[in-house]
Amino acid sequence: MIRDWFKSGTPWIWLNAAAVSASLIIVLGLLALIAVRGLGHFWPADVMQAQYTVPGSSAVTVIGELTDTESVSLEDLHSAGYTLKTDKLRVDRHLIKTGNRDVIGSDFRWLLEAYLSDVSYPQNIIALERREWGNFYGYLKTIKEDGKVVAEGDASWSELEQRLERVLDIFEQIREIEKGAIGDVNYAIEDLRLERRRLELGGEDTPENLKALVVKRQQFQKEYEVLQIQLNELYRIINRDSLTAEVMDGRVIDISLAKLVRIYRPNDLSVLGKVGFYFVRLWEFVSDEPREANTEGGIFPAIFGTVMMVLIMSMMVTPFGVIAAVYLREYAKQGPVTRTIRIAVNNLAGVPSIVYGVFGLGFFVYFLGGNIDHLFYPEALPAPTFGTPGILWSSLTLAILTVPVVIVATEEGLSRIPRAIREGSLALGATKAETLWRTIIPMATPAMMTGMILAIARAAGEVAPLMLVGVVKLAPSLPLDGNAPFLHLDRKFMHLGFHIYDVGFQSPNVEAARPLVYATALLLVVVIIILNLAAIYIRNRLREQYKGMES
Questions:
Q1: What fold does the segment set 47-121 form as a domain?
Q2: 272/399 Cα distance (integer angstroms)
């Protein structure tokens, strides 16, 4: 009976279903863990105030957010020097984000629950998100303008909100001038410098040509001086306002409003207020630039760089992979040489990605990029233009890494097209090229898109080769901007995968970086899913379009 049951294949069906179910549970569980750990970071936690008393020393006041709790064995605590008397074998300790790193030296500390007392959540505690030194927690004392007190006590909060709103508007104007107008002027002046060098190398540096360049440079210099005057005035206004606040050790600290990003009273927020605050911070995370060694702010440059690199890579890998597959399947004589090429292609798919990075650095960057600089950009030498890692070489490196996937998938699609379709097209008078271009390739397009989907999924998550051929911790500007030629393929870029590595393993503030690792990992998965869904949608549309031809 059992033998017949096994012979029927039913156990293997159930075993298959169990394996698939277990895989789905593991994947969904991992995504849920990443989502909870990452997205929970943006919720405005309440800030507590408590007394922390270690036996043998006086009590100290602690103000901060409770970020984590863990259970520790009593034996470990005793070996660490704690003299805790309790009947329990394990005790809890809490990780408190106290902020104020510039004042007390560290913005996270572990505190034993047994030593905490008088825990409360005062509504007038303020939290300040700063552009440097992380969060600040304390009690607002006064508001100053040019060093003179203009508000103090409870009435100073509304005054602070109004002044900070004005400061943030001025900060946006400053950033627009510095990165926009002044950036464009500097870019134009640098172009003039390169143009002059180009004339010198070509022997065309006549007084007439040089005079035209001097006139243009003087015009740009005047624009720069006007912008600099505006910038100095804005800096004067933005540095006018400041606040004083009392920290947990009793000291009163003076903070310029120009250094603040956001102010709020976490313990005074309603549920609706916290929800709104949560989505504001979440939007900031996906739309703003990073700050504080990538442990604060947003990751928009990394999102932009990842998507652009994948798009450029896709435009490069698809034609090369399809042409190679068409040649191997439709034109190449099937023999030992062709079989050897197919074996080589399959083996390329298993080569470690770092090997492709070394190849890209040596061939694309140093050899190809160096020769391009000597041929087309001699005026910029010895500073490299394309002879340095950039988004173009990163995309080409990943295109070579993923081209075996596209070749194999396209060949599989071509092999599934019935021979009768080819013969029918030829019988109607079409040439082999016309048959291939008008009939075979359109029908194999869904298979090509499948290869592209697999290529995108792998390329978007690769990090090791990118560390050698273009990715950086913090890119000063995006590869796409308003300056000609608009798409700057020679620029370095940020990448979500490298951002995860950098924040998780290179950050000087591990505790602050940990939730951002989860949030960035979740965002990388979302970006890959969106790119894949777009490719799947196109593939399904093509499949429906050519379904009649296949039948």
A1: SH3 type barrels. (2.30.30)
A2: 47
Helix (H) or strand (E) holding 252: strand 252-256
Helix and strand element counts for the chain (H, E): 20, 13
Q: What is the mean pLDDT of residues 292-303?
A: 86
Tokens matching residue 100: 């104020």
Task: Burial-class residue 446 by CB neighbours within 10 Å (0-12, 13-18, 19+).
Answer: buried
- Give the N- to C-terminal CA distance of the chain in Å, as an integer: 44
Distances (CA, A) of 490 to 180, 301, 330: 20, 16, 37
CA atoms within 13 A on the CB side of 125: 24
Residue 17 sits at the vertex; the CA angle it makes with 14 and 23, to the nearest 5 degrees, is: 140
DSSP of 512-546: HHHHHHHHHHHHHHHHHHHHHHHHHHHHHHHHHHT
Strand 296-297 versus strand 290-291 pairing type: antiparallel
How far apart are alpha carbons 66 and 99 in whole angstroms? 12
Q: Which two tokens stand for residue 377?
A: 């950009």
Select from 346, 365, 349 the least CA-distant residue to 357: 365
The pairing of strands 60-73 and 241-246 is unpaired
Alpha helices (H) in 416-509, listed in sequence order: 419-427, 432-435, 441-461, 466-469, 496-505
Give the number of residues written for the chain: 551
pLDDT at position 234 is 93
Kindly state the helix (H) or strand (E) to which residue 92 belongs, with its residue range.
strand 90-97
CATH topology of domain 303-550: MetI-like fold (1.10.3720)
Rounded Cα distance, 296 and 288, in Å: 10
Distance, in Å, from the CA atom of 275 to the CA atom of 283, rounded to the nearest integer, reads: 12
Q: Give the pLDDT confidence of 465-514 residue by residue, as tens digits.
A: 999 998 998 888 889 888 878 888 999 999 999 999 888 888 777 888 88
Report the C-alpha gap between 467 and 358 in whole angstroms.
10
Helices assigned H by DSSP within 40-155: 74-79, 101-104
Question: In the structure encoding, which two tokens stand for residue 128, read together?
Answer: 């300040």
Domain 47-121 matches domain 303-550 at the CATH topology level: no
Joined together, the tokens standing for residue 249 give 């050790």
Distance CA 535, CA 405 (A): 15
Structure tokens belonging to residue 134:
């992380």
Across 519-548, average pLDDT:
82
Model confidence over 195-211: pLDDT tens digits? 888 888 888 878 888 88
- Rounded distance, CA 454 to CA 402, Å? 8
Residue pair 277/264 in contact by the 8 Å Cβ criterion: yes
Q: Nearest to residue 308, comparing CAs of 395, 401, 402?
A: 395
Residue 209 CA: distances (Å) to CA of 192, 196, 212, 362: 11, 9, 5, 39
Dihedral class, residue 81 (left if φ above 0, else alpha if ψ from -120 to 50, else beta): left
With a CB cutoff of 8 Å and minimum separation 6, the contacts of 366 are: 387
Domain ranges of the chain: 47-121, 138-262, 303-550
Amino acid symbol at 349: A
